[in-house]
Task: structure prediction
Amino acid sequence: MSAPRSIDLSIVLPVLNERENVERLLPRAVVVLRAIGCSYELVVVDGGSVDGTPEAALAGGARVIRQTLPGYGGALREGLAAAVGTYILTLDADLSHDPDFIVKLWRSRERAEVVIASRYVRGGVAYMPRNRLILSRVLNAFFARGLGLPVRDLSSGFRLYRAAAVQSLDLEGTNFEILEEILVKIHAAGWRIIEIPFTYYPRERGSSHARVVAFGIAFLKAFVRLWKLRSSIESADYDERAFYSPIPLQRRWQRRRHEIVCAWARGAGKTLDIGCGSSVILQSINDVVGLDILHNKLRYMRRYDVPLVRGSVLALPVRDAAFDCVVCSQVIEHLPYDERIFAELRRVLRPGGLLILGTPDYDTVGWRLIEPLYGFFAPGGYKDEHVTHYTRERLIRLCREWGFTLEDTAYVFRSELVLALRRDAGPIAVVPPPSGFTLPTELLPPVHTERVQ
Result:
């Protein structure tokens, strides 16, 4: 584990020829920080100023970093990497970001891993030239909608970050599009983002280093790159987004699966959802515990106040016969066949308990047509991750061999098979873990999971 951080807040300030503004901004920021009562550092990332900005920053008590990476994105990346505070606050040096607002950002620090001073949420205001305002609002709306982000002001650089979240990101942006990149990758990692209303005023001195046309072009280039990440199954909210997808087939597919599973699990008792991801199924079942092996999925689902545990279906961190119902949907096809899977599903169910098991049926014409199409339109997606191809006959036979009795069968679009099975009252088979298997146990704070007893 890394050593605890001794500084509460790092202020990161990218600058280029901003001497007069730095001389005014830093003393005001210090007054605010002292009033807050937190320990702090001022980090100024200088992009090669020739007007005495570095000297003014040093005189104002800041630590100055000479920028080596190109553009605003490079400055921000270097500043974030150099910060040592538990929280990192970024703002512009031109006084369009009022340092007095730091108080409001700091008060909201426990609510999310990213707190945005937002011009476009209710209560926020932006005073800027009309053409620039229109372009800003159009670009923000386009990116928010196109990338499926619940954020209105993606281009605001006035933000408070939890350092552990933002410093874990692999950032690539070199210009202002890094602001959108950070939010996309934060959201994909399952961290929380909130916006609080802020009133923006144009800079008081000097000229802006942002060029509107270049700004827009960089945004559009970044959109394509970031869209691929947002549409990836690796994104923390992939399953939830699919449930509400504007694509009719994807939305109907998810909702049909949800309808089948929830109808069978309704009233079944204490339920374990294995491989829960961000599925709406986990939100719909009442007495449920969600289990997944991916940190980002669990981080995302914290917002719904559902008990969560990190683990693998190959070695469930659950006592014997702990659950009345187990849901295991879209999991087993992602793993090489291993008898441990079925042994574990049996072990954690009480005798007479219900197992809801779902996987593509590779003996159907529908799935044999759908999967190649999916692989063509979404390379690297589910097609490439399906390593074990089950058929209805094979899966039912395996379940019977492991002491499950088939109760019901359903299909999603005659392609995805869902089985309802009952565990018999026989003894629990003991199967050792696969050779070389180790269950990952490390947790990334502040992911709050609980071990089921």
Q: What stands out?
A: Confidence is low (pLDDT under 50) at residues 439-453.
